[in-house]
Amino acid sequence: MNVEQPYEKFQDEIEELHRQLAEANDTILAIRSGQVDALIVENGHGHQLYTLKTADQTYRVFIEKMKEGAVTLNEDGMILYSNSQFASMVNMPLAKVVGLRFAEFVPEEYKETFKDLMSRGWESDSKGEISLMNERNELIPFLLSFTSLELDEGPALSVILTNLSTQKENERQLQIKNEMLEEARKKAARMNEELEDIVKSRTKDLLVSREHFKFLADNIPVIVWTAQADGNADYFNKLWLEYTGLSLEDSRGSGSQKALHPDDFDRVVQVWNQALVTKLSFQFEYRIRRASDGEYRWHLGKGEPVKDDQGNIVAWFGTSTDIENQKQEIDRKDEFISVASHELKTPLTSLKGYMQLIQMQPDLSDTVNLYISKANASLTKIQHLINDLLDVSKIKAGKLKFSTSAFDLGELVNVCCENGKYMYPSYTIKTEISDTIMVVGNEERIEQVLMNLINNAVKYSPQNKEIIIRAEKDTNFAIISVIDSGIGMSRADQKKIFERFYRVEDKKFLTPGLGMGLYISSEIIKEHQGELIVKSQLHEGSVFSFTLPLAN
Ligand code: ADP
To answer: pTM for this structure?
Structure first.
């Protein structure tokens, strides 16, 4: 039996079927890509010509190339034709898509909408949005555009599907951005409103404080001015304008200098320039011309810098107070002190002389001798007081002059220390002398200064009774210090104690005195080209030091 023949026959048939399948695939591809629009097919009855009437080449190419999905449905909603784009949209091979019902891709919740759209599509061109499910069960939004067609094979519905995912995502992003923008706008509007409120209230505050300032400035009996950071004056109150007869325009900038006494001009300019550099408040006395009678009158001028948070000067505020009357009062008082102390000096000298004569009388009882020595002690105190008053007058008149010579500072310090010990036996007074120090000065006057400092150290150290007098040598001068551990004084008082008649007001610690000692001492040291200074801590003590030139 020959079994080879049917097997070979099957082989041939299979080969023929393969060939036909390949040909069919090629044909489909050619049709899709628009390479053919007619084909001859061999069937059992010979060759037959098929023309692709609905598939005009150009449109087929378009449809294949476009981004949108395109399907044609028959009346039952079955897909007759699909482009590859739609197949990839629903994530299925193209061959599988054709023949399926379109509704299979429509999720349950959109089925009704789709049905509606489709029935409207059969009637006329229409559009609508639904989401379709792809094979991965993802919902994808689409715009569906329906157009009914009349094909030879019967009526068909063309559906163009535009994927709205990107557009929807963009819309969503846009929506988010819009919401953010709206939120930011609202926030900005709120901030703006708050800012406006602040500005309004600040403007009001500013107006009130400006009017307040103007009211005060124009109603106090003191000249008031303000200047810019660079020192150019920009405001003067009513009193200045009335007093000097200058207009505001004339006074602005450096115009106010027109009212100054010519002798004070350089000094005022110097103080001003220095303040602009140091950025510190300043004070000086100068004369301003009063327009009503042409008289130059003394004023006390004060300037204060106004600084911002960074410490930069933004303006200067200043005042000028007429102190002419006070000055004249002080002059009269000085004159009185001078005359009175001179007048007192003569009878005091004769009183001392008579006391000496009495003392020289024979057979004086012990009691009388005691009274005489007590009277002499009191006379010495009065003599010191009168001498101090005379010194103050001399200083005021610029007549504190004395001769100088070289002397041994150590010796003088020891003498003063001994005097102190004798006068204040309950105090421990020590010296610290580094070397033999020869200085140039008026020995009597330096003794006066040292004794004054020792007296003060005793007077203002009621509890810690140790006092040190130190003398040291520096390169060109000697430094002399009187150190105590007494009541000390505040920083503010340290600046003022060298002024004439200044006394620290301490209600708990009342001591007799007139505030002349330190003033006279510091003037004496100034005459020696030195300076008397103080370093002090309240309740801890004070150190008074001065310098003297070394003798060569
Ligand atoms: P007086 O002692 O007569 O008051 P001074 O001119 O000698 O005048 O001193 C001025 C002021 O300085 C004193 O009133 C006192 O308040 C203060 N003072 C002076 N020396 C000392 C000191 N060693 N310790 C504390 N305060 C002092």
So the answer is: 0.57
